[in-house]
Amino acid sequence: MTTPNRIILDKYLRHNKKFPHIWCPGCGIGIVLAALLRAIDRTGWTKDEIVLVSGIGCSSRAPVYVDFNTLHTAHGRALPFATGIKAARPPLKVIVFTGDGDCAAIGGNHLIHACRRNIDVTTVVVNNYIYGMTGGQQSPTTPEGMKATTATRGVIDQPFHIAELAASAGATFAARSTTYHAKELESFILKALEHKGFSLVEAISQAPVCFGRRNGMGDPVEMVKREKELAIPISKTADMTFEEKRDKIVTGIIEEREAKEWTDLYAGVKKTAGEE
Amino acid sequence: MKKKNGQLLQGNEAVVEGALYAGCSFYAGYPITPSTEIAEVLSIKLPERGGTFIQMEDEIASIGACLGASLAGAKSMTATSGPGFSLMQELIGYGVISEIPMVLVNVMRFGPSTGLPTSPSQGDVMQARWGTHGDHPIIVLTADSVPETFEMTVKAFNFSEKYRIPVILLLDEVVGHMREKIVLPAEGEVKVVDRLKPEMPPEWYAPYADTNTGVPPMAAFGDGYRHHVTGLVHDAQGFPTAKPEEVISGMDRLFSKISRGFSEVCLTEELYCEDAKTIILSYGSAARSARDAVETLRADGEKVGLLKLKTLWPFPKAALEKYANSVETIIVAEMNRGQIYREVWRVARGRWQVGKALAPYGNMLTPEMILDVARKVTK
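Above: the input entities. Below: the structure tokens describing the complete assembly.
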């Protein structure tokens, strides 16, 4: 029933792109990308109708490796490009693959406005709590107290919770899972892809070289196990306080609702305008 | 657009008419005076013609959406003014290196920063040339009247499509907000250029391969030609590369595709230049005052001519050099502290004197101000 990972990878990786990829040993981005590819395979969409858009950062290097229409934009700007593509050509399946810094720091304004518009774009955010490409600086999701090269005495800023941020900004689907829960992650991404409207899946991931190493989190396997230990399904969090949830990873579907989608609404505007 | 009757249009409205004539089907923008009418009118007219208008959260998102729409096959445009133009700079470079056609209209206002909202200025001339980081080619057009704004908007789209590059239309507040009579051309009367599409089978397609014009054909996302687009330096396939030979050929082609088109792209207009000892060089609304000053001086019997730039970048230096043996002085008339003046001085290399008549305080450059400078030279 389930197609093996190897077959999926062979189907979607670019054979004319010279590997290896740029990711560090033990990095979780490949797990998230594989979950996305498996989910895409289950949609039945063709490669030609899919556009994979990214910004700048480790996770944003993903599009070059896969055989879709792929667009590696500027730092933080994946969502404006994706919005332009979707608005100009609505039948295309537009997916954004981004990271915590790209999406929630430099691209934070674009994120909340894409949510607000409820345009039919799916965003997969690899949240590994750190700027990896530049060598381990604090990101808008680095937990308080954790160390980064720009916060050697520990981060003092509060982190964003990206999935909740997206839901409160108007995203009609928002979910969180981890690289440990790879099958759950895949199922959330599939739901997001099939959801009509703006959808976001936050994938908690490990960055052993740029984050774990400085914070005594052990090897990649230990980091992934830590995700398992910290994960708590949203169904069990109803009675928990913010403080109790703070150090946990709340997994599950944070938001799922139906609302009018931007390209549908704009098609209505065009119809009305044409009849005037 | 079929009717031949004249209309009274604003410069900004002429941008809209020119864009629609050229086939613009996508606009993304953010409000800023003195460019906002372009967005307002397109928000009405684009959906009537099946096109898309979207108001974005800022100017960075606006140019990003335009580049995305262009990659999806749409002729796209945004419009802004100084502060917004500053925000757009990074993605102008993205459009240049990724070879994405689009038109960016900057209706200049006085700066820097919030400046004098919204007094006229031509202070963004050098920013339009060099605003985005790194060596890069660019095409920057301008206009001095409502009919010319229409003409240059169509040309901006044509050049962007033909050369696969963002084209900047640099207007000033006076031209943007001025109302004048214009007779819009009928369909087919003015040439409209569409980007070259690939005809080879998808497996043969290389989106950044050299061609006999230096401009590779451009497939839209969704056309079946799956390819990669990146702001990294890339090889012919679009994949990132740092191999010296691929960097050299890729970057050189970016420049040579434009320099091969210099004669087509560098547009100027001349009046009485053949026997002129003094040429007044100007552009945009300042050129209207320059024309008035030249007519006055000619009536006085002075051998004075007008050289009006319609293209600012690449700088049309051949149009100046044509008169290297006959002209004694070129006076640059512009509404800034001498941005094109320095360019003319650079091109002169001592072959002629260079003078300037400037209005750098958010004020109009009047014919009298130009006459004051010109009479000192012609005396």
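Note for the figure: Chain B touches chain A through 46 residues (CB under 8 Å).
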